[in-house]
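Hi W.,

Here's what went into the run:
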Amino acid sequence: MAKQRTPVLKVSKLKKSYGPVTIVNDFSLEVWPGEAVAITGRNGAGKSTILRCLVGADKIDDGTIEVCGEKMRESSPQIRRDLATVIDDLDFFPDLSVVEHLDLLARAHGLPDADVAVDDILHQVQLVPQSGQLPGTLSSGQRRRLALATAFVRPRQLLILDEPEQRLDVEGVQWLADRLVEERQKGLAIVMASHEPMLVERVATRTVRIGSARGAEAGAA
Amino acid sequence: MSKRARKKQLNRPAGAGPASDGTTAQPQGPATADQSGLATSPKAASSAAGPATPEPIDLPVDLDDDVPVYDHDLLTVEPEPVSERELRALMKDWRRGRATRHLWDVIQDGYVALLAFVMIGGMIFSVVWRAQGIAAECTTASCQTGRTLLPWAALFGTLAVTLAVARLFGPIVASASEGFWLMDAPVRRSRLLSGRLAAVLTVSAVVSAVFGGLVAALTGSSFAEAGIWAAASALGAAGLTAFSAAEQGADRHWTVRVLTWLAGALGLAALTAVVAVAAGWVSLGIDLKLGVQLAGIVGGVGLLLLVACGVLAFVRLDGMRRARMMSGGSLVSGMQGAMFAMDVGLMRDILVERDAMERGHVRPTRGRGLGVQALVWRDLQRLIRFPKSLLLLVVGLVVPYAVGALGLAAFSPFISGMVLMTALVPLLGSLRVLSRTKGLARAFPFSTQDIRRAVMTVPAVLALIWAGLAIPAFAGLGSGMQHMPILDAVIHAALTGVAGLLAAVRWVTAKPADYGAPMMQTGMGAMPPGLMLNLFRGIDVMAGVTGPLLLGWSPWISVVIAVIIFFLLQGGMSMEDAQAMQEEQKKQMAELKGETAAAKGSAQKTRIPPPSRR
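Here's what came out:
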């Protein structure tokens, strides 16, 4: 595969504060296709804040973020097409079943064989028995699987995950690691925050440790 | 173990052998000790396990000889009978003990509410008084029949709402803490919950009496007749609430559901009859006195139901499922929270989520179309799956006809539009979910405008159909209505449809009050700026679009206003984008200025002075 000339994700001197408290300061990162970056660090270090800024959920105070060469704008259709995310602000339609969510997303992204793609991911996340269930009745682990499925059922250039192992059982974490490794080898760029050493070790090609806890200035190692 | 011996054990270093004397350790570590004398920190536990140096334990309390020590084995102890009365008294005592204000303090601070109550009461009395005067002029058969039928519509409507609310909440509810701490204990639930049953019955009776009596008084009934209507509403509602409670005890729902539909259908039939009679389409020879007598019979049946089902409900309180009561309790607390935030949208979200939880499962349908069309098709499939949402739209169609028949055609665009807005809100479920959090919208590869336009398509088509069917009402079809040229009627109906749609979109997409923003000082304390505006969302758009029609101005003004509002609403987050871009441009300008200044500064520094002339 010919090397892409621009990184899939380019972050320069990112700064984010909540009131007087600076959570992230002078954070820079470049992620290329086929690369998986794991952001690690203790609770409150700013991992989730960085990821929320990267997907456009939070407004940054300073710095720049580019996705596939385009400046980050949360409502940009191109960025929404390239960027798949699983962070904590994902909502579901209360009256659409599990399989209908995935079907809708696959069709919205213009997948020609939406049914096949949906069946495949439904099997992988082991939600076939729950395919007709409404999201409100799913367990927290099943909701997490559905959230992951929404990211995998659609085309993407960059995948951003915030602690994807949360609420997954051991088998689920194993599946996730296999899937992410496979995706990375196919050229997908991945940025994830995780506390699961096995996941980080298996998936990440690079680890960025956020050193300081909240209250101190944080920066990339 | 004696108290003295226990105290000694607590005051000795962990890991040391049995205390043989009264020596005490100096407390300094972070470990804690519970009353059983066991160290709870890992550090203390590890020191207790091995022969390592004993570590002192930090005692949280200094037990003295007065502290009672429970000295029974909980596995073998025989529990004594529990007195529910004492438990209730204990809870009451706790609650009173923890209250920071007395009732009188609240009343003193609530003078605003009291003034509002007096003002609203005065207004209602004035309106009733005027209505009585107007009703005296009602001498025609159609007017008399309309007057007879309207309290019936109100009565059945009240009963339907009472049943729906009772089924939604329980009607017997228990908070999470009550469910967890009290229901688990070997207590007789009927003794704990009997007061609650009585309270629910009383509230349903009082609220229904006020509404039923008010409608009767407004339609010109004498005060004695209004009293009979109020009593019929109160007893009917209380009886049906008791029935719902009894059915809750039997863990059965379908009976209440069927009765709700029945009462709703009767209410709709009565309302349609009012419109048909007032418009002169049909004539029904119903005597006013007969209507009141029938109301008395309804009240009597309600009383019988109240007594019979009240007793049955009381008997069944013991076997009432805890989960069902706690579910109702959590719904109450959720609604309370949303109400305090004046977030009506959140209240609806809670109800929708609960409805989905009850349903649990659907038969999945395969989607259609690709790209943005998939969203439109999915909305259509949703409508076919849940056609109940259409019911409100159909019922709402009666309103423009009723308003016209009552001689209020001038206000029809606003009143009918408000009803249409209410009917369209359930059809904008997709827009609501995609607006309240950005996470799901981010998963779709479209701009915010495209998403909004797509999920507005089906409701927009329905609003237009509604407007088309309402044209005869605006044109004044029927002998009792004011007539309007057909072209004007088409324009008025279309603008009402558009206003209803835009108001519903505004209602659904409005953001909740931002408690992080600076507060406003008001007579009722500090408030976030958007809190009060939240109550008027939707109504503002409705007033903006239909206002020129009410004032008799050119409809084109309404068209222009509607177009502007449409672009503002469908843009949604693009406003935020525009703001972000503006900020970015400012930042770039500032950087550019900084660079220019720096360049100037360096230029000044490196400027070579002209050679001096000699």
